[in-house]
Amino acid sequence: MDCQAPWWLPGGNLQTIWAALRGARHEGCVPMFRRERWITPDQDFIDVDWLEEPGNLVPGRPLLVVFHGLEGSSSSHYAQAFADVARSRDWACAVPHFRGCSGQLNLAPRAYHSGDHAEIDWILRRFRAAHAGPVLAVGISLGGNALMRWAGELEADAAELVCAIGAVCSPLDLAASGKAIGKGFNRLTYTRMFLSTMVPKALQKLDQHPGLFSREALLSARDLYDFDNIVTAPLHGFRDTLDYWARASAKPHLTRIGVPALALNALNDPFIPASSLPRPDQVSASVTLWQPREGGHVGFPSAAIARLPAGHVQAMPRAVAGYLAQHLPANGLP
Asked: What CATH number is associated with residue 147?
């Protein structure tokens, strides 16, 4: 994939911010979702948003599962763009929300994190059991790292659940990305944006489960390193932030992946350093690396085409869906 951003959107930051706030996400009508609540094995819940189906789709059609990024949801620009692309291909589409991201606080002390491969596994097994057609999965940013981490854990056995996966703009080296997002413009813009929702939810979690962590320490957190040290790491069984970043990163496990997997990262992503991206010798033969020069972080605004104006964000999900489609069974069955 080679992103050709409009001339008036130079650089990774503009490409990132425009895509999230203004980029056209779909052709025609807005994708509509219906919600389904799943009870987890630990008696918590996740909410799954299913693309409303036109009714004339082929039985046994592929299902595209979209795992969102940090603080994302089915309302995120990329989720709506992928849903629209799935609709255009007559695919079913579902967006499972990580715990606490569907608009309602989850019940258990735990939440979600970048290496949550156990949750990914439970979700994909449920989709596989419920869906008659082939299953494809794509993860965005945090969701993509967790998905690739899962594929590394299962190795060749992942093919029993999915035909192919994709990770878009995922921080496969969490330490490198964590350091980058904590500096300069990134700290002032992206870190502040994430903390503006993460801290209030963590405070609600503390009210729900008193004593989980220090309220005073949380209120003094100024970056994701601090937040992960105070909240994410201890809630999910990690010693501290550095232990979390090391053990949750997918990059060391990419050589173990045994299912077709795409890792798409723009070289100008503001908070995923190009130097931290995997090289061909650091991945298995099942992994395809796309590393275009432009795109920003889950941006990829593109030149005008057909009914989509300049700056639309359909080019990336179309390209990723094209990769995934290449790995569907010839007869359309799982």
From this structure: 3.40.50.1820
Domain final residue, candidates 201, 229, 248? 248
End-to-end CA distance of the chain: 27
Which tokens go with 299?
A: 């941006």
The pair of structure tokens assigned to 259 is 């299912």
How far is 288 from 201, CA to CA, in rounded Å?
36
**What is the per-residue DSSP string for 297-316?**
TTT--B--BTTB-TTBS-HH
Orientation of helix 174-181 relative to helix 241-248, angle to 10°: 130
The residues annotated as belonging to the active site are 141, 269, 297
How many C-beta neighbours within 10 Å does residue 200 have? 10
* CA distance linking residue 27 with residue 118, whole number of Å: 35
Counting as low any pLDDT under 70, the low residues of the chain are 54-59, 331-334
Q: What is the pLDDT of residue 331?
A: 55
**CA-wise closest residue to 152 among 207, 111, 115:** 115
What pTM was estimated for this model as a whole? 0.96
pLDDT digits (tens, 9 = 90+) for 257-270: 999 999 999 999 99
pLDDT digits (tens, 9 = 90+) for 8-17: 999 999 999 9
Query: How many residues comprise the chain?
Result: 334
CB-CB contact of 248 with 151 (8 Å): no
Q: Tell me the C-alpha distance between 241 and 217, whole Å.
A: 14
Q: What is the DSSP string of 186-206?
A: HIIIIIHHHHHHHHHHHHHHH
Q: Which amino acid belongs to residue 312?
A: H
Q: In terms of domains, do 99 and 239 share one?
A: no
